[in-house]
Design goal:
The protein is α/β, with parallel strands linked by helices. The chain has eleven helices and ten strands. Strands 3-4-5-6-7-8-9-10 form an eight-stranded parallel barrel, surrounded by five helices. A two-stranded antiparallel sheet has the order 1-2. Strand 5, helix 3 and strand 6 form a beta-alpha-beta unit. InterPro entries: AKR (IPR020471), Aldo/ket_reductase_CS (IPR018170), NAD(P)_OxRdtase_dom_sf (IPR036812), NADP_OxRdtase_dom (IPR023210).
């Protein structure tokens, strides 16, 4: 059974999520969400930007898993910043997903087109809409995505309700330690997107090959377990049934401290899309 962690408002969130980024093929998206839920996932992550909220909602319904058992996240599209836009598009997301509440809703990016100069005021006004939707019961938890230290320093003093989550790109070689520390100090849980990015660079590393043999796990499973052992909430996606199943089989082992340290010291060679 998948473990959960409690957010600052006592809402429980499963420690592994099924992500749907770039998944806009109707059959693949619907089947992927449905299969993930049938295999045991209870945490589904989407976003207005992904353009698939209706498909995600359909997959949830077809799974037969009761809505109250699913932790469902969406995020604000960059073009929908501002108080009035946010109020309107939260309702639109609810309608597309076919639900009367979201378990978590995030501001997707802190600095967006058209608000390069006034992003500080923009984030504060946008957050006010999330607070009101939270108080109205439309959102069970609210938070941020891709907010770094300077963005947190601006927003946190202006919150009536503190963010409960910060979703960041996190994996070996990209630890964002200062942002993670500040987020946690403010009471936020940390979600990790793109946790499997290092796989191509790790595939021929002898130490990691030996690690995979030691645990009898794939590199993907090692990376997801790394995230869980670091107290992140990793979000992973696949449309392939066997990969969806494999990615969920990470609750029967833990990484030794030496292996965690090895991953912590990994040097990332890829792009940093932030």
């Amino acid at each position: 059974m998948q473990k959960t962690v409690k957010l600052s408002n006592r809402i429980e969130i499963p420690v592994l999520g099924y992500g749907t980024w770039r998944n806009t093929d109707p059959s693949e998206c619907v089947e992927g969400v449905k299969n993930a839920l049938l295999m045991g996932y209870r945490h589904i992550d989407t976003a207005q930007m992904y353009g698939n909220e209706e498909l995600v909602g359909e997959g949830m319904r077809l799974s037969g898993v009761p809505r109250e058992e699913i932790f469902l996240t969406s995020k604000l599209n960059n073009s929908n910043h501002g108080y009035e836009n946010t109020v309107r598009t939260i309702d639109e997301s609810l309608e597309k997903l076919g639900t009367d509440y979201l378990d978590l809703f995030l501001i997707h990016w802190p600095v967006v087109d058209g608000h390069e100069e006034d992003w500080r005021e923009d984030n504060i006004e946008t957050w006010r809409a999330l607070e009101e939707a939270y108080e109205a019961g439309k959102l069970k938890a609210i938070g941020l995505s891709n907010f770094k230290v300077e963005h947190l320093e601006n927003l946190l003093p202006n919150c009536r309700i503190k963010p409960m989550v910060n979703q960041l790109r996190l994996h070996p070689g990209l630890l964002q330690a200062e942002t993670v520390a500040m987020s946690r100090e403010a009471g936020m849980a940390i979600q990790a997107w793109s946790p499997l990015s290092p796989i191509p660079q790790m595939a021929e590393n002898e130490t990691i090959i030996q690690m995979a043999e030691k645990y009898q796990k794939s590199i993907a499973q090692l990376l997801l377990r790394y995230g869980i052992d670091k107290n992140y909430i990793p979000l992973t996606k696949s449309v392939h049934e066997e990969r969806i199943k494999e990615n969920f089989e990470v609750f029967d082992f833990e990484l030794d401290q030496a292996d965690l340290d090895f991953f912590d010291q990994w040097e990332w060679q890829g792009d940093i899309f932030l």
